[in-house]
Amino acid sequence: MAERVVLHVGLLKTGTTYLQKRLRASRKTLAKHDVLFPRWRDQIDAVIDVLDIPRRPRPDACNGAWQQMVDQLRDWPGTALMSMEFLGPASAKDVQTVVRSFGDVPVEVVITARDLNRTLMAMWQESAKNSGTEPWPWYLKAVEEGTGEGKRFWRQQRLAVIVERWAAAVGISNVSVVTVPPPGAPREILWSRFCEAVDLDPTWCAPVEPANESLGAAAAEVLRRVNEDLAGWEIPWPSYAKVVKSKFAKDVLGTLRGEDLTLGMPVPDWLHHRAVSMRANVEATGVRVIGSLDDLAPVSVAGGTPDEVAVEDQLHIAVRALGNLLRLELERHGDAPLVRRGT
Fold it and tell me: Is residue 137 part of a domain?
């Protein structure tokens, strides 16, 4: 039986992709140190199963996946670690179901959290990467008022509520909050904080390239507009994820950040007040914090919002993206990579 199960239920857009990528790259090394990090696809299927997420792909393949994951984690003779952000905002009922699945095995929970201003912009962009069409001003207003997409934002980011929900299932002493350091801080700080929470030696997992880089303001708006154009078509999610989210957004638009305005804005007064309230509520829970609650104070980010980007700049990014996309297709149908003239 496992000595303990550690669930990393990081909030969305809090460095989870980077942490998961690093853990995945060192699964064999971790196993040599008695730490199990299951196959990534198995973790996804398991959480889809236990939370009964209907809109995600491969529903049939997920049947029974949670019990298989529980058996795998329970049978490991050491520390069993799972990382999945879908678990963060799970309902109180689902949280209880997850924890009770492990029976007598001790369960610890690690929650990663980031300041609300950076998270707000990242969440809108993530919405666009997942076929969202809501313009930035509407999204911002919805979050302020807690309506429409704003409800989803707060369901994912109500840190104190999420802490209390998991603490009710495992005990507050078994919950840790890891804060994402402020802009400009070395990425290793987040990694070292996470390892402290999980009780891992940071050297067991080799560094990896940054993951899930954001788009610029113009590129994000171009993607949103493309989604509007595609909205009238029935596109299966796996196809959208492969072609639009991965190939177009990541491999094409993602390469143009150097030509684009950084997505950023000053901290709105209403968001500052929400953050002050959130910090007080988190502090009141008595949860263990690795890092500092000061890291959760919203910070202004230099740049601009999508509605501030000139149409000419959007056109520039759109044309460059189209050119890159066509180049990739030409290379795919040719015998060799294209070579720039004059090189």
Answer: no
Supply 164's token pair: 């209390």
Digit-coded pLDDT (tens) for 94-128: 999 999 999 999 999 999 999 999 999 999 999 99
Asked if residue 193 and residue 89 are part of one domain, the reply reads yes
Helix axes 136-145, 149-157, angle to 10 degrees: 60
How far, in Å, CA of 37 to CA of 28, rounded?
Answer: 9
Could you give the CA distance from residue 329 to residue 327 in angstroms, rounded to a whole number? 5
Q: Give the tokens for residue 284.
A: 């009141």
DSSP 34: T
Amino acid at 7: L
| pLDDT score, position 62 | 74
Query: Is residue 234 domain-shared with residue 164, that is, in the same domain?
Result: no
Q: By C-alpha distance, which of 168, 197, 193 is closest to 182?
A: 193
Residue 57's pLDDT is what?
A: 53
Total domains present in the chain: 2
Residue 307 is classified by DSSP as G
**Amino acid 237: pLDDT:** 87
Residues ≥6 apart with Cβ < 8 Å to 79: 2, 3, 4, 6, 34, 35, 36, 198, 199
189-197 long-range contacts, Cβ below 8 Å, gap at least 24? 190/15, 190/18, 190/19, 190/112, 191/18, 191/19, 191/22, 193/290, 193/291, 194/8, 194/19, 194/110, 194/112, 196/290, 197/110, 197/290
Alpha helices in 208-299 (DSSP H): 217-230, 237-240, 269-285
Kindly give the interhelix angle for 217-230 and 311-333, rounded to the nearest 10 degrees.
70
| Phi, psi at 5, each rounded to 5° | -115, 130
Q: Confirm whether 141 is domain-assigned.
A: no
pLDDT less than 70: residues of the chain: 55-61, 211-212, 342-343
pLDDT value of position 58:
55
Q: Specify the pLDDT at position 79.
A: 97
Question: Looking at the structure, do residues 254 and 275 belong to the same domain, yes or no?
Answer: no
**What was the pLDDT predicted at 211?**
63
